[in-house]
Design brief:
CATH topology of the largest domain in chain B: ABC transporter transmembrane region fold
Number of strands of chain B: 12
CATH class of the largest domain in chain A: Mainly Alpha
Helix content of chain B: 55-70%
Oligomer: heterodimer
Shape of chain B: elongated
Strand order of the largest sheet of chain B: 6-9-10-3-11-12
Helix content of chain A: 55-70%
Distance between the termini of chain B: 62 Å
Number of domains of chain B: 2
CATH topology of the largest domain in chain A: ABC transporter transmembrane region fold
CATH superfamily of the largest domain in chain A: ABC transporter type 1, transmembrane domain
Number of domains of chain A: 3
Radius of gyration of chain A: 36 Å
CATH architecture of the largest domain in chain B: Up-down Bundle
CATH superfamily of the largest domain in chain B: ABC transporter type 1, transmembrane domain
Strand content of chain A: 5-15%
Distance between the termini of chain A: 66 Å
Structural class of chain A: alpha/beta
CATH architecture of the largest domain in chain A: Up-down Bundle
Strand content of chain B: 5-15%
Strand order of the largest sheet of chain A: 10-13-14-7-15-16
Chain lengths: ~625, ~625
């Protein structure tokens, strides 16, 4: 049951790549399910064997031995009954095997899918932020929605068919060889004719199939874009042009679909009738053979052969039917493995954050329980000693250069320092590098040159998770999760008690509106808090940071909204959590800026001015211009 | 299956059953709507069916003749004469002829079926797409863009794929079954009774499996949606996840849903796994029964060509496969219909939707000027809504003036301006442009005269030029440059290596938000509208540029009536008239000075933003 989304393009893989991917896939399956795979293979073999034995039974046992025997008086119906009992046993066993392998295969298929799915997600969590920033979410999503699913279908449908087909062919071939090698040669001849014609049809069909997938991708891509902009289309009276563009793509899709499905439709009749012709030719040659008195040739053998020949050649058609599916699954698998092979965020940090209490001499000492105070645990490899430093929130940046792309530096020689409890405000135009600086502080990206120190420890030495735990973030875009309000607030501090959560909400000024929600703190938010106003979402995100209670806070202030009541609450909330912490804030509000200890004015990745509000105004530089720019000009 | 979950065991209540009936009716209706688009291909469909019929006849006749072939090889008891080679050749010839004919029929049927279903898909897709082009904003809102996209892509593809399968199966399987049964009966009516006993058994078994498995699949698909939603959420919030170091928690969350899917799927497949064994059971039973009774009949007749012989026996074995296989295919078709049912319903919903905004019979095609009047306007998005979105709005805006609109999120600013371009229809009262009710204008002419820069504006794949040309397909380079200059977009366009031919990605994601907004304004300006509406269209533009744009509009297009919705009080301070909206009502209106004097709300806003609040140097 495929759920193929739009834009599932076909990536062309070379034969070598296809085999590599295939091998890797088998490796994953084998590692977890080797016993089941063996068991399933045996079951498939047995069940296919039972089918072939049935063919032999009809010709050689039923017609040759039993019926001829009874007719000739050498056998009785009791003998026939015995033969049938044996067959009931064989068939019964075959049926049990058929059921077992179906169940086994579904476990293997689903299990492998789960392994891959979980692995993809787990790996995705470890990827650096640059991975997410350089790809559209749609592309990443399509791995989950399309590729993994196609792969599952291949594993649970294609694999059994392939194994069963191959097994049937081998068993049938052996049975034929034992019966008559002359007729086997005839069947082999036909086998190659069928192979040839199937190859011919499949080649054509694959060509058009790829074209069809491409046309489908193009059409769906167009649909996606146009429907998303449907309101703009309406406003610009652009309906007719939009239809025209659609019709062209739709027509092309229709042409390819017609060709692709025509060829896949004729595969059935062609192979089916080729095997019919093989049947007749076998009977003909067999009959002529008996007439010519070829030794060892009986009617029973021929009748068996008529069935065996089919069992031998029909799987070819079944296999051919799977080719397109395999191509598609392999293309999907290559995208999956691409993600899995993407290098994880590196973390060579060894300095960790530990609970600490004060020793006799006032220095921190590691504690095994929650103390409310934290210290950096810094092991020194040289003399295998450990030093502890209080977590204070002292941040320095020393001559930092950085570029998202190698060779394209966006920050140049940024130097700044913030003592514990100080507020640093960044101002500057969009693209000046404000967000970039905050991205470096918690190592979402790594700097190219210079040094960043946290409490005098180079942040490269600090374990990333611990570094980030020491540094809270309130982003402009408030991302909430599908969970209760309570759980959203304690997202950064899962150990927080309900009281902690409420205290954090009160601090952030969020308590009031939360209590108005239908289930208060237990209200489940869905769709990233779609039911809440922008301001309320901001309040929650402030509460979330307050609950995590980090000594350092990075704030990306949202541009003020017109809702002046919530606005005031947000401002107060912001002010409240800034108290007593080292704060880096990308500021939009005058009050925030005025309250800052130091303001950094950024332009094109360089700090061009720094100082307090008053100092900067007196400088009459860029800051003055920005400050007066919008307002003074119009007065 | 011990873990058969509890909820599936709960007996259906009466209400639920009527709900189920309702659902069945709905799906039938949906199939009727969807299959209408097969009409244009009925020729191909009928031809495909005819050829399939021909193919089936040949296929069933082949085993019929194989009896005679076998009889020649395996002669009657007591007949010792040599094999009749002449007859052997004759029957072989007939059968090969039948096989070749069947191939030709099969190929032709395949071609026509492929053509018919591809055409069907094309028409269905087109009908939906065209329909959506006629949708009003209200229609679009009702479905949401995302859902329309899924319906147009995944759902249509699903239906088309199913149809292609069903188109062949619907004739092939029943015909094959009936015809093969008849032929089997001509060989031996007694033995054919075996089929009559087995067919109901197999049919019932397959049906039960299909019905049993359906709810589990529904559950699986719901879980899938949940999984995808959680991945989407994680992707959107990846900065939060990482900055709080909650990667492991996210993995755990994902793992739970993932495991649930795994479990449910295996549960479903354990039921589905019965398909094959049930089929084999039927086939094997038939074969052994035929072997037992058939052997007795062969012996009784002495393997005479006139009576029941080994040839008849082998033909019957072939019929076993043909008859039972066709049942299997029928169940496959049934499953296909079940699967495509939801898709068909979702597609039919779009097709059945009536666009609720159309041009009047004898429309006014000329918009005299840009004056706007709201006369006791009430508006709600749907008739069922309990509360007015706009409540008794009265306005009189002379042509050429500039109107600023301000108010909290949800105060219906966007709703108000959308009535001007007749993006929605008023519920009560009237909106007039140039003294004429907007409902009397031709829609295209009206919207040509009223340019709206929507809050959620988008650019389309192409170039800067191709996007600007949306405003006026015949615009000259000079006109483009002028509009760009007005919208303060000229500077960044000139900075692009390819200037006006610089590529724009889908949604305009390759340029910044502020640049995007400026291009959208330029695009609207190219329409030379009588009324220009900017719905929060400069929010990502810095204050300085924002003021430049406003100034340019003041001086360059003085005759155009301008409506500006803004978050920043700075953006609307100089308007001829400022409206403050709250809960769908105008609570104050006037110039900046008037409002400062009279409106408490305005003053408060002014204070928070300009007095001590907003320093937006963005």
């Amino acid at each position: 049951m495929p759920r193929r989304g739009p834009g599932n393009f076909h990536k062309r893989l070379t034969m070598k790549e296809t085999f590599q991917i295939f091998g890797r896939l088998i490796g994953i399956m084998w590692k977890r399910y080797h016993w089941m795979i063996l068991l399933a293979s045996i079951a498939i073999l047995t069940s296919a064997g039972a089918g072939v034995v049935g063919n032999v039974f009809i010709g050689r046992i039923l017609v040759d031995e039993q019926i001829s025997g009874i007719l000739a008086g050498t056998k009785t119906f009791d003998d026939l009954a015995r033969a049938i009992y044996v067959m009931i046993g064989i068939y019964g066993f075959g049926i049990i095997c058929a059921y077992s392998y179906q169940v086994l295969v579904s476990v293997i298929g689903q299990g492998t899918q789960k392994i891959i799915r979980d692995q993809v997600f787990e790996h995705m969590q470890s990827l650096p932020l640059s991975y997410f920033d350089t790809r559209t979410h749609g592309d990443i999503m399509s791995i989950y929605t399309n590729d993994i699913d196609t792969l599952r279908e291949m594993i649970s449908r294609v694999f059994p068919t392939v194994v069963q087909s191959v097994v049937t062919m081998i068993v049938a071939f052996v049975a034929m060889l034992i019966s008559s090698w002359v007729l086997t040669l005839v069947v082999l001849g036909f086998f190659f004719i069928i192979l040839l014609s199937v190859g011919l049809v499949t080649k054509q069909s694959a060509k058009y199939f790829i074209g069809q997938q491409r046309a489908l991708g193009a059409t769906n891509g167009y649909i996606e874009e146009m429907i998303a902009g449907q309101k703009v289309i309406k406003v610009f009276n652009h309906e007719e042009e939009s239809k025209k563009g659609f019709d062209e793509l739709n027509e092309q899709l229709c042409v390819y679909t017609t060709k692709a499905s025509s060829f896949s439709n004729i595969l059935g009749p062609v192979t089916n009738n080729l095997s019919n012709i093989q049947y007749v030719i076998l009977a003909l040659i067999g009959g002529l053979g008996i007439a010519a008195g070829v030794p060892g040739l009986t009617a029973g053998i021929i009748i068996s052969f008529l069935q065996l020949g089919r069992s031998f050649t029909m799987p070819v058609a079944q296999l051919a039917n799977q080719v397109n599916m395999i191509t598609m699954a392999m293309a999907g698998a290559s995208r999956i493995f691409e993600l899995v092979d993407e290098p994880s965020e590196t973390d060579d940090g060894y300095v960790t954050l530990v609970n600490a209490e004060e020793g006799e001499d006032g220095t921190p000492r590691e504690a095994d329980h929650f103390t409310g105070r934290w210290a950096w645990k810094h092991p020194h490899a040289a003399d295998s000693t450990i030093t502890y430093t209080w977590l204070a929130g002292n941040i320095t940046m020393d001559n930092v250069d950085f570029g998202y792309v190698k060779g394209k530096t966006v920050l140049h020689g940024v130097t700044l320092y913030a003592k514990p409890g100080q507020k640093v405000a960044f101002v500057g135009a969009t693209g000046a590098g404000k967000t970039t600086i905050t991205n470096l502080l918690n190592r979402f990206y790594d700097i190219e040159d210079g040094k960043i120190r946290f409490d005098n420890i180079n942040i490269n030495k600090i374990k990333k998770q611990d570094l980030r735990r020491a540094m809270g973030m309130v982003l402009q875009e408030t991302n909430l999760f599908t969970a209760s309000v309570k759980d959203n607030i304690r997202y950064g501090n899962p150990d927080a008690s309900d009281e902690d959560v409420i205290r954090a909400a009160q601090l952030a000024n969020a308590d009031g509106f939360i209590r108005m929600l239908p289930q208060g703190y237990d209200t489940i938010l869905s769709g990233a808090g779609a039911g809440l106003s922008q301001g309320q979402r901001q309040l929650l995100s402030i509460a979330r940071a307050a609950c995590a209670n980090p000594p350092v806070l990075v704030l990306d202030e949202a541009t003020s909204s017109i809702d002046s009541r919530t606005e005031k609450l947000v401002q107060q909330g912001m002010d409240a959590i800034m108290r007593g912490r080292t704060v880096f804030v990308i500021a939009h509000r005058l009050s925030t800026i005025q309250n800052s200890d130091v303001i950094m004015v950024l332009e094109r990745g360089v700090i061009i001015e720094r100082g307090t509000h008053q100092q900067l105004l007196e400088q009459k530089g860029k800051y003055y211009e920005l400050y007066t720019g919008g307002m003074m000009k119009e007065n | 299956m011990p873990e058969q979950s509890q909820e599936t065991q709960i007996p259906e209540t009466v209400e639920k059953r009527s709900e189920a009936q309702e659902k069945r009716y709905k799906s039938l209706h949906a199939f009727r709507i969807v299959t209408k688009y097969l009409k244009g291909s009925m020729g191909s469909v009928v031809l495909a069916w005819l050829f399939v019929a021909g193919e089936v006849v040949c296929e069933v006749l082949i085993p019929y003749f194989s009896e005679f072939l076998i009889n020649i090889i395996d002669p009657e008891v007591g007949v010792t004469e040599a094999i009749d080679i002449g007859k052997l050749w004759m029957y072989a010839g007939i059968m090969i002829g039948l096989a070749l004919t069947s191939t030709v029929f099969g190929i032709l049927a395949g071609f026509f079926a492929a053509g018919a279903s591809a055409q069907f898909g094309k028409r269905l897709r087109q009908a939906m797409y065209y329909k959506i082009q006629d949708f009003s904003f209200l229609n679009i809102d009702r479905f949401s863009s995302a859902s329309l996209v899924t319906r147009l892509t995944t759902d249509v593809t699903n239906i088309q794929f199913s149809l292609q399968m069903i188109l062949r199966l619907v004739v092939r399987s029943p015909m094959m079954m009936v015809f093969a049964l008849i032929m089997a009966a001509t060989k031996s009516w007694q033995l054919s009774l075996i089929f009559l006993a087995l067919i109901p058994f197999l049919a019932a078994a397959l049906l039960i499996i299909a019905i049993k498995v359906h709810p589990t699949f529904v559950r699986v698909f719901n879980a899938y949606d949940q999984l995808n939603a959680s991945v989407q959420e994680d992707l959107n919030a990846i900065r939060v996840v990482k900055s709080f170091g909650r990667e492991d928690f996210e993995k755990e969350k994902f793992g739970k849903v993932s495991y649930f899917i795994y479990k449910s799927f295996i549960h479903a497949e354990r039921i589905l796994a019965f398909n094959n064994p049930v089929m084999q059971l039927s086939v094997y039973t038939a074969m052994l029964l035929i072997s037992w009774f058939g052997a007795q009949m062969v012996v009784a007749s002495g393997n005479s060509p006139a009576g029941f012989n080994t040839g008849s026996l082998t033909s019957l074995f072939t019929y076993v496969m043909q008859i039972l296989n066709s049942l299997m295919f029928m169940s496959l078709g049934f499953v296909m219909i079940i699967i495509s049912r939801n898709s068909a319903e979702r597609v039919a919903e779009v097709l059945a939707e009536t666009p609720d905004l159309v041009s009047p019979e004898n429309p006014v095609t000329d918009v005299p000027d840009g004056s706007v009047t709201f006369d006791h306007v009430h508006f709600r998005y749907s008739k069922e809504a309990s509360k007015d979105v706009l409540n008794d709005i009265n306005l009189n805006i002379p042509s050429g003036s500039t109107v600023g609109i301000i108010g909290v999120t949800g105060s219906s600013k966007s709703s108000l301006i959308s009535l001007i371009a007749r993006l929605y229809d008023v519920t009560e009262g009237s909106v007039k442009i140039g003294g004429i009710d907007v409902r009397d204008y031709d829609l295209v002419k009206l919207r040509d005269a009223v340019a709206v820069v929507l809050q959620k504006n988008v650019l389309f794949t192409g170039t800067i030029r191709s996007n600007l040309l949306w405003g006026n397909p015949n615009a000259t380079q000079e006109e483009l440059e002028k509009a760009a200059k007005l919208a303060c977009a000229d500077e960044f366009i000139e900075r692009q290596p390819l200037k006006y031919d610089a590529p724009i990605d889908q949604g305009g994601t390759n340029i910044s938000g502020g640049q995007r907004q400026r291009l959208c304004i330029a695009r609207a300006l190219l329409k030379h509208p009588k009324i220009l509406i900017l719905d929060d269209s400069t929010s990502a533009v810095d204050t300085h540029t924002d003021s430049l744009i406003r100034k340019a509009m003041q001086t360059e297009i003085p005759d155009t009536t301008k409506f500006i919705i803004a978050q920043r009080i700075l953006s609307i301070r100089d308007c001829d008239k400022i409206l403050i909206l709250e809960d769908g009502r105008i609570i104050a209106e006037g110039t900046n000075d008037e409002l400062m004097a009279t409106s408490e709300a305005y003053r408060e806003l002014y204070e928070t933003q300009l007095g001590g609040g907003d320093f937006d140097a963005a």
